[in-house]
């Protein structure tokens, strides 16, 4: 495991501890008027927000839009206005297109919330409210579900906060339970040159992240992240018995989409890596009922972090290795 239990729980609980500040920010925005929500970013910083679009669309009639930062700046969507809640993220806080998107949001008069590892960065300085912690998802949960509560769409907010107070220790138990499968995955597939990665619903953001950000960006392995619902509209024609496919499966309403992919894959390939949040229910007793769906993206993210670490170790290719990122102009 990359982190000790103490290091991991500290990282998660830093986000949980910001509840009061998050609620204050969301309440101030809501009081001023919140007509819609825009989730804007690039790469993994956008993908980590993607599950929140799923939850807003499922639980609320509040309009929500998801945009790549650069597309947002150039398109300037008509729905965006001074009553929009603009949520954005950048690890460094210096991603040029994301900073530009935030600056345009500021000019528009929108309400800006930013996540960044550097609260002194240009992005943080542009935002109305900035947050930094080890888990962007934890802060995102508090922002989005508190907003849904204020909007009258989510009565289980206090119960969710109670789960958040326990989730760090339970999730670490789940990560420990995933270690054997993660080591076997790394040992078996360390020399593969290509992976399919599928997911859907609340888990699709992690599907994109694992294919694009982990396998390609951090491990230099070709990968095709494809929505489970779209798999049968092109990608499946490339599946052979030697094609490794990572099937990410959560416990949200779209679970049947991954069931279909699994059923097909079992007939035509010998290389299936199935990562299913349902396998970790015993390690996470606080997460039950509706919250098996709500915490699907968080569970997938944290379990896959174990897979990523083990793969990087056996390949002797640290996850921070880069060829171009942060090294050349692009």
From TrEMBL:
Renumbered to this chain, the signal peptide range is none
> Which residues does the UniProt record annotate as the domain SIS?
26-182
Q: What is the superkingdom listed in this entry's lineage?
A: Bacteria
Pfam families per record = SIS
Which GO BP terms, alphabetically? fructose 6-phosphate metabolic process; protein N-linked glycosylation; UDP-N-acetylglucosamine metabolic process
**A Gene Ontology molecular-function term?**
glutamine-fructose-6-phosphate transaminase (isomerizing) activity
The record ties this protein, via InterPro entries, to: FrlB_SIS, Fructosamine_deglycase_FrlB, GlmS/FrlB_SIS, SIS_dom, SIS_dom_sf
Kindly give the SUPFAM superfamilies that the UniProt entry links to this protein. Answer: SIS domain (SSF53697)
Under PANTHER family, the record lists:
FRUCTOSELYSINE 6-PHOSPHATE DEGLYCASE (PTHR10937:SF14), GLUCOSAMINE--FRUCTOSE-6-PHOSPHATE AMINOTRANSFERASE, ISOMERIZING (PTHR10937)
Name recorded for this polypeptide: Fructoselysine-6-phosphate deglycase
Provenance organism: Harryflintia acetispora
